[in-house]
Amino acid sequence: MDTFQDTVFKLKRYWADRGAIIQEPYDVEVGAGTMCPETFLRVLGPKPYKVAYVQPSRRPADGRYGENPNRLYKHQQLQVILKPSPSDVIDLYLGSIEAIGIDLKKHDIKFEEDNWEAPTLGAWGIGWQVMLDGLEISQFTYFQQCGGIDLDLVPAELTYGLERISAFLQGVDSLYDMDWAPGVKYRDVRFADELQSSVYNFEMADVDRLRRLFDEHEAENRRLLSLFDPKSECKTRFPAIPAYEQVLKCSHLFNLLDARGAISVTERVGMIKRVRDLAVSTAAVWAEQNA
Amino acid sequence: MNFLLEIGTEEIPHWMIPAALDQLSKLDLLGAVPLVDATPRRLVVKAGNVPERTPDQEQVIKGPPISAGEKAAAGFAKKQGVELSSMQKAGDYYELRKTVAGRNAIDIFAEYLPGAILGIQWPKTMYWTAKNGPRFIRPIRWIVALLDDRVIPFEIAGVKSGNATRGHRQLGADSIPVTFENFNEALRKNFVLLSSAERRRKIESEAKKLGAKIDPELLETLTFITEYPAAIRGDFDPKFLDLPAEVLTTVMRHHQKYFSVGDPLEPHFVAIMNTSGDPDGLVKLGNERVLKARFNDARFFWDVDQQRTLEQRVEDLKKVTFHVKLGSYYEKTERVVSLVRELGGGAEAERAARLCKTDLTTEMVKEFTELQGVVGGLYARAQGEPEEVAKAIYDHYKPVSMEDSIPSTREGQIVSIADKLDTLRECFKAGMIPSGSKDPFALRRAAQGIVKILAEGKLDHDFYPLVEGPVRDFMLERVQYYFREVRGFKYDEVNAVLASSRGTLADVESRLRALADVRPTENFEPLAASFKRIRNILKQANFEANGKLKEQLLESGAERDLFDAYQRVQKEIQGAGYKTALEKIASLRPQVDLFFDKVLVNAKEPEVRINRLTLLSDLLTEFSTIADFSEIVTAGEQK
Questions:
Q1: Which of B283, B316, B364, B367 to probe by mutation at the A interface, max A CB count within 10 Å?
Q2: Which of A224, B137, B234, B419 is the most exposed place for a label (fewest CB within 10 A)?
């Protein structure tokens, strides 16, 4: 039986064999693989790109102190971007499912409508959740817009919920009981992180400090963007990626504050808009650099 | 000739397919009748008896007048590309008769189909080739387009039409040459049942055999998310049956698209696969494990939620948005509680109002939003709230549609009305008013719900004092709609009753029923016409009654008779039911007719004139409290 890491290796190998770059996880906190520059920025503009990477994705509100067998604060996503999407993209995706040892002739696969939207990123797409024997194992999206910009080429984004898939393959009821590596359980690797992050996110995070940090990162992004000169000959030197990292910081801080229950009714909408405005203006700069 | 079109796509959302088929059934196939069907991956149009060509047509082009001379005619002929000799004279003009050759159907279709296919209206479309590329509901991956055995040649988004279809994703072949005749069978051999009716039957009969309780809406969904449906039965641990049936059923139906088994629930479910079978039991096992995890979640939510009572959660509502412009649910709760008090709902109803939105802060409702209200009711019961309170919370979103029932208890009815009324008032205040087909806050449904509860719950509340201004007009429209469309009364009867005295909606309904009963009797409509006449006379005379009728001024004969009849009927209808009262009023007809026949209202002596107007005015006022007869559209007027 494949361990968690075996399944990850197989999926990476599969996509590497089909011409995708295998990237490593991004080193700033994100809520989903989509938010990494490897997706958010790369899907903009006319240049084709194929990439796959595992991204630990943080959702503070989903933390359950390590007590819920199916819910995690931080889960691992395998994110695949195929830009432009090839016409046999669904067959390619199904091939990856067979590659990790699922005989599709013996299982039930359904594609059920599920359009993806990320209001803080000004991004949305059309697609499905992929159901395997009643279990949602992937999200499949044709990107239409990112950072408020209509995309030149339509990328297909395939997102695999690695814990779920691996638990399915291993036949365990709790994510914590699956083997990460031979003799090492998921619990051994991740439990402390889940427990402690839940304690921090729900009980100990300093609301005032988080708010100040949010303001600081927002200000830094705005300061940088105000310095961008589209007519400059060295505009490719402009730090659009570092500016975008400030957006990611804001997004994560917003999620933390939200989980902490610190965001009021009226404030919430306003904060989402603040993050989206940053994402949209940063995307515009990147698109300008790469036009 | 036989026409076959198959648009091969990636999986189309199930709920959009029927509307797309409806549009395809209106394709212009040169008079042939399109027969349509679909699976999630293909939209199919078939038609027999398509003409091979359109017929040749003679065209007449009018030329210059003969009086303009041959030169003008020659110029015209040259422009048309013919010799002058082929022009004919018709009356004072030259004319040219040309035969326009018919066209081959295949050529017409090749031009017509791409636009017609991309012209299908969808709720939401996408592009997939590149920016500014064609838009459709999902990417088009293959096209079969045949007229007899010839391919109708065209291209959409880089996909050329051909004669090869595709089978089921896992079980069928990738490229299957087909003809009009063998199309359905070729698909069947490749595990695609094209007929949605056949899929529906297969799901229903297999599921029933496994004990499923058939839910029509779910059946429809499953019909359009499968190409080759097959049912399997799975089991779950009976220990989960101690969770509320509402929660278990929601998980099964809405989240997992399973049919539940048994009523009361048994620890089984029926899942519909999109594949031929489950020989190794893997699909059953997988679904059972998913359901177990879901049920475990639900139990976890239940346990966690019990750590804080609904009462403790009232404060938490300050953080839950009702609407950006309208503040939090906490504020809404305060308003609803005071409304319930105004409506005289009683202590239990007030308590229910205070707690009714608190389930929005529970894990259970965050996960299963469709169970809002229901969960609050279940929790209230579990936390020892009085049964009236629990039931009122449970029901307070009802009725969710015109078909849905109203809350079963008085407390539930009052809380539901207060909640909806608050939404209406606040949205109108903030300028969020429905217009045309736009009603994002479902205010029509809210208003309709209030009307339904007031009428069917026979509540002692007139809606007039509850609302004012535009909200009142909006409510009035819903009242009219309700009695017309839902209860089936005629529009003028509804107008007549609503234009008379006000009252509770239950009272409005009894008056309507009486009116509808009495209306076909012989005296009624003529009397209604007379009442209308009285109204006009009073209006023309600008008359406002301000004195008592003087009996001594009454002329004997028709006038006196009418007055006597008026007094008699007035006595007779006291304490009588609406129907009897209306019958009695209708019996005034001969006296009214005779009065208009014999008596001149505009008498010379002002005193007499005023006395006669007063008589008519009293008559009208006294007998219009059940219905304003002058609103009745009589047979004569309809012509």
A1: B283
A2: A224
pLDDT digits (tens, 9 = 90+) for B209-252: 999 999 999 999 999 999 999 999 999 999 999 999 999 999 99
Contact B327 A87 (CB under 8 A): no
ipTM of the complex: 0.94
- Interchain proximity B324–A126, CB inside 8 Å: no
The reply to whether A185 and A278 lie within a common domain is no
Structural domain of residue A92, as residue ranges?
Answer: 4-199
Nearest-CA distance from A168 to chain B in Å? 8
**pLDDT tens readout for residues B377-425:** 999 999 999 999 999 999 999 999 888 999 999 999 999 999 999 999 9
What would the pLDDT profile of B10-64 be if each residue is shown by its tens digit? 999 999 999 999 999 999 999 999 999 999 999 999 999 999 999 998 888 888 8
Q: In CATH, what number is assigned to the domain containing residue A152?
A: 3.30.930.10
Q: Is the pLDDT of residue B639 over 50?
A: no
Whether B126 shows a pLDDT value over 80: the answer reads: yes
Residue ending a domain, among A199, A228, A244, is A199
What's the Cα-to-Cα distance from B210 to each of A107, A201, A289, B271, B291, rounded to whole Å?
20, 47, 61, 10, 18
The verdict on a CB contact (< 8 Å) between B10 and A68 is no
Kindly state whether residues A182 and A97 are assigned to the same domain. yes
Query: Do both A181 and A258 map to the same domain?
Result: no
CA distance B20 to B287: 32
Based on the fold, state whether residues A237 and A252 are members of the same structural domain: yes
Q: Are strands B3-9 and B140-147 parallel, antiparallel or unpaired?
A: antiparallel
Note whether A103 and A25 are same-domain residues: yes
Q: What gap in Å lies between CA B354 and CA B311, rounded to an integer? A: 8
Residue B380 near residue B397 (C-beta atoms within 8 A): no
CA atoms within 13 A on the CB side of B108: 17
Residue B571, CA atoms < 13 Å, CB-side half-sphere: 5
The two three-digit tokens of residue B98, written as one number: 């040309």
Residues A150 and A219 in one domain: no
> If residue A214 lies in a helix (H) or strand (E), which one and from where to where?
helix A207-226
Number of domains comprising chain A: 2
Mutate to test the interface with A, among B166, B223, B287, B305 (most CBs of A within 10 A): B287
> What residue in A sits closest to B171 (Cα-Cα)?
A105
Which residue among A125, A133, A144 sits closest to B282, beta carbon to beta carbon?
A: A133
Pairing of strands B140-147, B159-162: parallel
Q: Which residues of chain A form beta strands (DSSP E)?
A: 21-23, 49-58, 74-83, 109-113, 116-118, 123-132, 135-146, 149-150, 156-161, 179-181, 184-185
- A183 and A92 in one domain? yes
Q: Are residues A147 and A130 in the same domain?
A: yes
- Give φ, ψ of A256 to 5 degrees: -65, -45
CATH number for the domain harbouring residue A231:
1.20.58.180
